[in-house]
Specification:
Distance between the termini of chain A: 62 Å
Largest interface: A-B, 37 and 44 residues
Structural class of chain A: alpha+beta
Order of helices and strands of chain A: HHEEEEEEEH
Oligomer: heterodimer
Number of helices of chain B: 15
Radius of gyration of chain B: 20 Å
Number of helices of chain A: 3
Strand content of chain A: 25-35%
Number of strands of chain A: 7
Shape of chain B: globular
CATH topology of the largest domain in chain A: PH-domain like
Helix content of chain A: 25-40%
Structural class of chain B: mainly alpha
CATH class of the largest domain in chain A: Mainly Beta
Strand order of the largest sheet of chain A: 1-2-3-4
Distance between the termini of chain B: 49 Å
CATH architecture of the largest domain in chain A: Roll
Shape of chain A: elongated
Number of domains of chain A: 2
Number of strands of chain B: 0
């Protein structure tokens, strides 16, 4: 196949499919049903580190995890699905609409969470508290 | 000897089939899921693979032509020879694919194909950018030395990949029993993409599922344990560059850390994914063993027969 035609097909095809998916409303971020769903997601990623407590954000778009072995983690939407990481080595910074988490992880370098003002402060305090207890 | 580039020729078919699958899912309200950024990442990975093949294709082809110059054998180009080449190349695919899951160096290239948490036709196009670096082209050497022309070998390899496109779907439940017995199907390949402990390291087939049955890696899809797609530890990014290179970076960091032996450094490249010098990570074998400790009732069920 001539290269220019291949290029048009590939670029045009990708652009058209992405646009159609977005127009169909398939870009919505996952909303977690409840703490039980979050617990299931965490424990499927880290079965050796069972959950002690789940703090779900007000809009159910993210959750702060306390594990039974005293660690903290985060579960957040990856499009319609989810990802989970420990917060070891993370830096948390308050942002205009919530919280930015920077992780020393090439596969999840930055997580932006939409949280209310008080909620963001509470999460920061909880994280700092857990870090203090570990230190 | 001229053969068409069937993977490039199939691009319009790929696009049309994706649209059809999407329409099917939306109208039937079943048969899979689509998400914009996931699909976009998969399609960009596919486009990148096409570019890399054009740019680096000469490496493999040059190697194959070198081998062709060495061999005194030439099986010609009859339809029968092409058919035999297709079957043998599928056997080659099985082993390369198995190495791709059992040797971290090769997994670093293949991991991106498993990095989507969705399973639809765009997932099929989430292809590697770094396949050349795995040097798995050497597994094709016997075919060429046996007298199959390099162009024919690449042609049947292309047919193999095109076949595998349609099996990346949840829209098809099961094919007729005779077909499921011999061919790789959506059901068999859903198992391969499952991150459930039961399904790890199974169903490596490209076209013929018989290889998995012959070599003991076949696991049938279980209604009681539907495949959950993605990686054991799912990625937290849709960035194609991170998707393409993250495991290579992981190997580099592991191999260059201080305080480990030369053997450990080598093992970080060639041991199965999840191996670590201090036992802080789990390979798929260890994941299965731990799963059985937590869920002993799964012992001696499909996927756990050998543990």
């Amino acid at each position: 196949m001539p290269l220019p035609i291949l290029l048009v097909l590939v670029v045009g095809g990708i652009g058209a499919i992405a646009l159609v998916l977005h127009m169909l409303g398939l870009s919505a971020r996952k909303v977690f049903a409840d703490a039980t769903e979050v617990r299931g997601i965490w424990e499927s990623e880290f079965p050796d580190n069972p959950v002690r407590a789940v703090l779900l954000s007000h809009d159910r778009h993210a959750a702060l995890i306390d594990t039974e072995d005293g660690q903290q983690g985060i579960v957040w939407p990856m499009g319609a699905d989810a990802a989970a990481r420990f917060l070891a080595g993370a830096t948390l910074k308050k942002a205009r609409n919530g919280l930015n988490i920077n992780l020393p992880d090439f596969t999840a370098p930055r997580i932006s969470l939409r949280l209310g003002e008080q909620e963001a402060e509470a999460w920061m305090a909880k994280w700092a508290d857990a870090r203090g207890q570990r230190a | 000897m001229n053969y068409p580039d069937v993977t490039q020729m199939a691009v319009p078919f790929f696009i049309a089939a994706i649209v059809l699958e999407l329409v099917w899912i939306l109208t039937k309200k079943r048969g899979g899921r689509y998400e914009t950024r996931d699909a976009l990442t998969s399609l960009l990975m596919g486009a990148g693979n096409v570019v890399v093949t054009i740019v680096l294709g000469f490496v493999a082809y040059g190697f194959f032509m070198f081998l062709w110059g060495l061999t005194p054998l030439d099986l010609g180009s009859s339809v029968l020879v092409v058919a035999v080449c297709f079957v043998l190349d599928d056997l080659r695919y099985y082993w390369v694919h198995r190495y791709g899951h059992r040797i971290r160096w090769v997994w670093a290239s293949h991991v991106n194909h498993h990095s989507s948490q969705h399973y639809n036709l765009t997932t099929a196009l989430r292809q590697t950018w770094t396949g050349t670096f795995t040097l798995m082209m050497v597994v094709r050497a016997p075919l060429i030395l046996l007298g199959f022309h390099p162009a024919m070998v690449l042609f049947v390899g292309g047919l193999n990949l095109v076949y595998q496109f349609w099996i990346h779907t949840e829209a098809i439940d099961k094919m007729p029993r005779w077909f499921e017995a011999v061919m790789n199907t959506p059901s068999h390949h859903r198992v391969h993409h499952g991150r459930n402990p039961r399904y790890l390291d199974s169903n490596y087939a490209g076209v013929f599922i018989i290889w998995d049955k012959m070599f003991g890696t076949f696991v049938p899809e279980q209604q009681s344990d539907r495949p959950e797609y993605g990686l054991v530890h799912n990625l937290g990014t849709f960035n194609p560059l991170r998707v393409a290179f993250h495991e290579w970076l992981g190997i580099y960091r592991d191999m260059t850390q201080s305080g480990i032996s030369l053997r450990d450094r080598v093992m970080y490249a060639i041991a199965p994914p999840g191996w670590s010098h201090d036992g802080t990570r789990d390979t798929s074998d260890q994941i299965k063993i731990k799963h059985l400790e937590r869920t002993p009732e799964d012992r001696d069920t499909p996927g756990f027969n050998t543990h």
